Amino acid sequence: MPKRLARQVERILDEGSGNHRSVIVRMKLADRDEETLLGVVANAIQRRALLLTARDVLPADLGRLAPPDRETPSDRAREALRDEGGLAAQVAATAIRPVSKRVLRTRGLRSVNPLVSSLPGLGQKARGVRSFWTSRCVVLQTTKDDLARLNRLVEEPLIGDIYPNRVLRVPRMVELKALPERVRENKASAWGIHAVGGLAARGAYGASGRGVKVAVLDTGVEASHPDLQGRVADWAEFDANGEEVPDSQPHDTAQHGTHVAGTIAGGKASGRWIGMAPDAKLAVAMALDGARGGADAQVLAAIDWAVDRGVDVLNMSLGGLTLGPEVPSTYTEAILTSLRAGIPVVTAIGNDGQQITGSPGNDLLSFSVGATDYRDCAAAFSGGRTHIIRESNFVSRENLPLVYSKPEICAPGVAVYSSVPGGKWAAFNGTSMATPHVAGAMALLLSATSIKKRVAPTNRAFLIQDLLTGSVEELGETGQDHRFGFGRLDILQAIGFAREKGF
């Protein structure tokens, strides 16, 4: 077993308590296009760190990025795109073959099968082996002794990484009883919807999220809430082993999921609009239990489910604490698969303050969000820092060490008014509250443009991210920083730039 995998196993053995271990074993990369795409994104992120303004991240015009008469730009056009600053241009400049979601799923399942079949006797006495296709991994319930001899039972070239199946807690929330006057002055909508141009985008462009489905991986949802009735199109509940709970009906085990869902697609039953994209549909997966929390396996299973349901955007206002600069790559492949299917993955950066982040919000490929208040000040609790990848089974050696900053952008996350169970409303703080503003903005962008029809899935998610990043209200330091990312979300600007560029 390579030294890196041996260290991962040793850490899992040392850090847990008792004799039982729940681990996630991931396959090695098998798709050359995956390696190419990761290299392109890694180079683009490093290059983006040197940009002086968010506007340099804006994508090229449709005619250059995705010529209407062909799926990919010509060789000459690709060469010109390499001078652009955004991710979409760099991906378009690379000859990565478009691939359907069906093919991605088939490949993912097929590649995991050899690993599953090579695990006889290892953990089978507990609860068996559960595989996930977007992340090409299995969750394994085993003992310390069996885990220690994993290298003798499994053909080594199959294994890419071994992670603990971490326990994820529901993000802390404190209800604000007394709201600042500036927040209470917003009569037409929750203040964040107004601040990022959500209401203006509806009036100027007729954007409402119609025809767009957003996945919400959270504590559940009260689908009968007056502001969410008719919006929950798909529902599933997953247990700690990643198994779908049969016959489950929509419910919220806390307040968190219903609040997040309301900010994405809520109506105005309270007398003011609470949702960014009130005509969007929701696919809600209960991946966290309000009392017990959840596990990485639940979230990975929910990502599989969401991609299978044909969602356009994936929102994860959840995560596990990361104290150091090095980030576990538990979610990297699942996010990569989602991106290749055209689905941007929007994540909360975490609520533990400066120089601390949460995973998957700090993953290289996630579109992570920090929190601001009604004065456009960074929230004290909002996380962010510089991260480093020193060794990786994902990133090629020539791109290592890879240094990158988080978050990408910020959005309203203080005194955010939205729906809670019991047909009520409440105001909460958190990067969990900022993240759905961004997911809802993506739904508005897709409903106001031709991106879904005219941009291939291979580049769609990167294009959406570049449009939102490049159009922000720039705050803080020049370029990207740990407090604001590139700046605060402005969906009115994003749609305007997209329309101007032909999308």
Tell me the radius of gyration: 21 Å
Question: Remind me, CATH topology of one domain?
Answer: Rossmann fold
**Unreliable residue runs:** 123-127
Distance between the termini: 49 Å
The share of residues in helices is 25-40%
Largest sheet: 7 strands, parallel
Strand elements, count = 20
Strand content: 15-25%
> CATH H-level name of one domain... which superfamily?
Peptidase S8/S53 domain
Overall pLDDT level? 91
- The best one-word shape is globular
CATH class of one domain equals: Alpha Beta
Count helical runs.
Answer: 18
Strand order of the largest sheet: 7-8-6-11-13-15-18
List keywords for this structure.
503 residues, alpha/beta, Rossmann fold, 7-stranded parallel sheet, 4-stranded antiparallel sheet, 18 helices, globular
Q: What's a concise summary of this model?
A:
With 503 residues, this protein is an alpha/beta fold. It is built from 18 helices and 20 strands. The protein has helices at residues 3-15, 32-48, 62-65, 75-81, 87-92, 101-117, 144-148, 150-153, 181-184, 191-195, 198-205, 256-265, 296-308, 332-340, 431-448, 451-454, 457-470, 491-500; strands spanning 20-27, 129-132, 137-143, 159-164, 167-168, 213-218, 232-237, 281-286, 288-289, 293-295, 313-316, 320-322, 345-348, 357-359, 367-372, 385-389, 402-406, 409-412, 416-420, 424-428.
